[in-house]
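thought: fold this chain, then report.
action: predict
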Amino acid sequence: MKILLHNLKERLPELERLLAGVSDHWGYEDRVYRFYHQSFKVYEVQHATIAVTRMLKSLLPGVPLNRKYNAILRQGTGKAFRPEHNENFFEVTRPMIEAFMHARFFLEMAVRYGKELEQEPSPLPSGWAALLYLWNFR
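observation:
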């Protein structure tokens, strides 16, 4: 998809900044730690997931994202901590980490292929093919 590749290249500095933020100690390492530590601070990962998703959506405005991604996003965002969540912390918070990991993966692929590709590739690298699936082009 030529327009996607064009938009990735045009927005590459923004994409790289966002990826750096969701990959640094506090944006990545600490969030996963908070999940295993059973800390309410894991809920903050939802902000990063939403920010990444907004950025990805902005690359192709009006093009809906993959239904599987949207289901993962729905299950992993929109949650506010309640003390009773501690009783089933794993079940409540695991979808947050899962949604974050998927969002981060797509952002990482957007940066990688925005840097590497000069034209649409053939055969398709797996990460580029995954990006095409994100916007239902495969």
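thought: worth noting. The chain has a mean pLDDT of 97.
final: tokens above.
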